[in-house]
Predict the structure.
Amino acid sequence: MSNDLLVYNPHVSVDCVVFGFNGENLKVLLIERMSSEFDDNFSDKKLPGSIIYEDENLDTAATRILNELTGLKNIFLSQFHSFGDPMRTSNPRDKNWLEKTTKMKIGRIVTVGYVALIKISRKIIFESENTTAKWYDIKSLDTMKLAFDHNKIAQEALKHIRHQLTLEPYILFELLPQKFTMTQLRHLYDIIMEKKSDVRNFQKKILQIEGIEQLDEVQKDVPYRAPRLYRFNKKKQKKKNK
Amino acid sequence: MSNDLLVYNPHVSVDCVVFGFNGENLKVLLIERMSSEFDDNFSDKKLPGSIIYEDENLDTAATRILNELTGLKNIFLSQFHSFGDPMRTSNPRDKNWLEKTTKMKIGRIVTVGYVALIKISRKIIFESENTTAKWYDIKSLDTMKLAFDHNKIAQEALKHIRHQLTLEPYILFELLPQKFTMTQLRHLYDIIMEKKSDVRNFQKKILQIEGIEQLDEVQKDVPYRAPRLYRFNKKKQKKKNK
């Protein structure tokens, strides 16, 4: 029986995987982490995240912490998975950094992962007294070692939106600007799904989404034949689904 | 900054929502909880769940705890959501029961929810020295108050499999016996999706799932015209998806 065994209280944290799209690449928002280890200064990257407060529910903690670290407000954060490998805080660099930052003895941390899809034009506080945030290509995660198990968390978040996209293709529009071209839309879809769609088939299929509207406008300031712009009318889509 | 604020270590638990289907109703596996409160004995129901061990990852904890409470082995448990409302342990009955059972001072518990779909014929230890398990109609949760926020957790698990079913209809076969009738299959689908499918359309649609096979057998021991049996050939389906 568990009564006879040592039961141990882990810390609980949240980590946020925020994706953006600049028209060419899928990006993830990372925070710079600076500290010293033995006599070396080091700097690496981590997901925006921290330990929850005593009286805070998980969603509130995610919203607060993302705001504290990036200035982002009114972001729809969706919980996707919790990570509780006892070894996820075993790297001495991570442990030392955490204990310095939190002034707490850190054993184990179970973290709850949140994901958000935002327009890359959203106002972000990239530089503040305490933190530095920056967009990174999702591909750069293949070679860049993030703090803790944050590479894994980011990969799981990507898998999650890939899965969600199959059911709810309109999540693409959360990442696109108000007005977008068919090429941008297809390119974004292909990046997330890791495939190469046929141009015509894609257009035919995507235009079946309720709420997608072709505009009488073309893209400006392009050196080639300007492509037509589209937008997504959320209200139309919602009406249809009721 | 969070450094100046009290940071508090919650306990972390897992709770398992195990669904079964008896041909007529969708069932959920609950554990009887008995205790005394002030001078009254009480008995109510809870999901199979408990606090994780220090050195255990979340998946291992879910598997261990479900086995300890029900004898179930080799169950595919899938994490679906974590629940961290600080008020979820605020009911004095829940708090007293936990403190007696665990011999620990309990403040807050963040719980990680797992869901499993199993054949109702699976061998379960319904009665043991320490626990009693029983299948309950999912409908009975509308009127039965479970311990903690377990009604909410069970409802969220149901929502999760409803969502999953849209993408992966073959999860239905995890709940059905090896050989089943088209009526059983449709009935199960309708219960989860909360709809009433048209008999012909349903059959036409469901037969498109790779791996579903019509057998040269009919259902036995039924007082009416015996319906044909089907089975799901997982290997065929896997081959196709590769």
